[in-house]
Amino acid sequence: MERANKFVLILIFCAMAIGMAGCETISAASKGIVAPPPVIPGAKFVGKEACAMCHEKIVKDFDETEHARIVVSDENIEGQACEACHGAGSLHVNAQTKQEKRATIVNPKKNPEACYKCHLEKKAEMSLEYHHPVPEGKMSCTDCHDPHSKEGVLPGSAKSIFDKNAVCAKCHEDQTKPFVYEHEALREGCTVCHNVHGSINPKMLKERDLNLCLKCHTQLTFPYIGGNYHVTNVQRGPCWSGSCHVAVHGSNYNKHLRI
Ligand code: HEC
Ligand code: HEC
Ligand code: HEC
Ligand code: HEC
Ligand code: HEC
Ligand code: HEC
Ligand code: HEC
Question: Phi/psi zone of residue 156: left (φ > 0), alpha (ψ -120 to 50 degrees), beta?
Answer without folding.
Answer: left
